[in-house]
Amino acid sequence: MKGKPIVILQPLQFDDTKMLAYLKDSIEKFYPVEIIIADVINFPANSYYKPRNRYRADSTIKWLRQIKPDSARTIVGITNEDVSVNKGAHKDYGVMGLGYKPGKSCVVSTYRLGKTATSQKHFQQRLFKVVVHEMGHNFGLHHCPTETCIMVDAEGQMKLDREKNLCGNCRRKLQIN
């Protein structure tokens, strides 16, 4: 009998063990996966963008895909550091996270999530929503027009407080295995 797909939570210069335990528990309740928390490692040197003192999300995802064990479905980088990507005319656009569809790796940053959070629990919920959103891309989901769906496009705004769950349409499209 085949077990649940394995997802690696890969802390990148991130040592909040309580937050990682919260994410493990919450993700396993949300998606039918087994979460393994890896040891903390540093970002690869080539992902650092010195002019803005942040890390390139696209370079980080490519590197995470290379270090992902074959036994894992997806690897999720978690960091407090600022991450960015090229977006339209913006050559260094700061993001909360990035994941490709379909994909084997994604990265999520807490950097922008806490600035307007009203409590630690609110912050945790926001982080969880970004993680499952980026994992959703890895599992084949596009952005969704339903405002309360986890897969709604943030469009550069903090929409996390409206998101509740995956809508029925997105749940049917999941490709976790």
UniProtKB/TrEMBL annotation:
Cited SUPFAM superfamilies: Metalloproteases ('zincins'), catalytic domain
Gene3D superfamilies referenced in this protein's UniProt entry, alphabetically: Collagenase (Catalytic Domain) (3.40.390.10)
GO biological process terms held by the UniProt record: proteolysis
Annotated source species: Lacibacter sediminis
Membrane-crossing residue ranges in chain numbering: none
Protein's name in the database: Matrixin family metalloprotease
CDD domains, sorted: Peptidase_M54 (cd11375)
Cofactor(s) it depends on: Zn(2+)
Record keywords: Hydrolase, Metal-binding, Metalloprotease, Protease, Zinc
GO MF term list: metallopeptidase activity; zinc ion binding
Signal sequence range: none
InterPro entries xref list: MetalloPept_cat_dom_sf, Pept_M54_archaemetzincn, Pept_M54_archaemetzncn_arc/bac
One Pfam family in the UniProt entry: Peptidase_M54
Keyword presence, Hydrolase: yes
